[in-house]
Amino acid sequence: MTDETNKHGHEAAATDEADNATPEAVEAAPVAEPDPLELARAENNDLRDKYLRLAAEMDNLRRRTERDVKDAKSYSVAGFARDMLAVSDNLRRALDAIPAEAKEAGETGLNALIEGVEMTERAMLSALERHGVKKLEPEGQKFDPNFHQAMFEIPNADVPNNTVLQVVQAGYTIGDRVLRPAMVGVSKGGPKAAVAEGDSPAA
């Protein structure tokens, strides 16, 4: 056997070995490691996204807390104020129950009592107003179910329908909320109230 034949024999054997290589042997070849810089960038982007989400959540929480604190300050006295309105109503009823003849008679003791009750009523309403409680003055206004409660209708052809003509019990607001709606009598039988631009007609 010549050198050339030996040479060709070795090359053929090497080619056969390469062809017979198993898939496991091919897979065992080293895989390129991921770039550490790319990994760091991906992690940085992930952390930045989490930070922005957390910052947005904290901002929303801060705003919600501020609103809750403001509402608590504004409306925490609502229950107490409502109870005090009942006392004020009773003072007004007591004054209205005094006959006109007795007032005109001018008895010293009675006049002092009337004056004292009136001063108490004024002081109570003034204190409530300092805490954001305001009296509604609906007479002559269009009936608004958000602020008024209709108790009865008054036939009157001279004023537009649903105009407040009589206030049976005063209504009050606290901040921008209704503390107690005004109990009113509304007109009936007059012309339809003009619909203001942007308002929808009453059903």
TrEMBL record:
UniProt GO MF annotations: adenyl-nucleotide exchange factor activity; protein homodimerization activity; protein-folding chaperone binding; unfolded protein binding
Task: Give me the stretches of Basic and acidic residues compositional bias.
Answer: 1-13
Q: Which residues form a coiled coil?
A: 37-64
Q: Example GO biological process term?
A: protein folding
**Keyword field:** Chaperone, Coiled coil, Cytoplasm, Stress response
Instruction: Cite the CDD domains for this sequence.
Output: GrpE
**Annotated InterPro entries:** GrpE, GrpE_CC, GrpE_head
SUPFAM superfamilies recorded for this chain?
Answer: Coiled-coil domain of nucleotide exchange factor GrpE, Head domain of nucleotide exchange factor GrpE
Per UniProt, subcellular location reads as: Cytoplasm
A Gene Ontology term for the protein's cellular component: cytoplasm
Taxonomic superkingdom? Bacteria
Signal sequence segment: none
Q: Please classify the protein's predominant subcellular localization into one broad category.
A: cytoplasm
List compositional bias (Low complexity) regions by residue number. 20-36
Q: What does this protein do?
A: Participates actively in the response to hyperosmotic and heat shock by preventing the aggregation of stress-denatured proteins, in association with DnaK and GrpE. It is the nucleotide exchange factor for DnaK and may function as a thermosensor. Unfolded proteins bind initially to DnaJ; upon interaction with the DnaJ-bound protein, DnaK hydrolyzes its bound ATP, resulting in the formation of a stable complex. GrpE releases ADP from DnaK; ATP binding to DnaK triggers the release of the substrate protein, thus completing the reaction cycle.
What PANTHER family does the annotation carry? GRPE PROTEIN, GRPE PROTEIN HOMOLOG, MITOCHONDRIAL
Task: Note the HAMAP family from the entry.
Answer: GrpE (MF_01151)
Q: How does it assemble?
A: Homodimer.
Q: Which family does it belong to?
A: Belongs to the GrpE family.
- What is the official name of this protein in its record? Protein GrpE
Quote the gene name from the UniProt entry: grpE
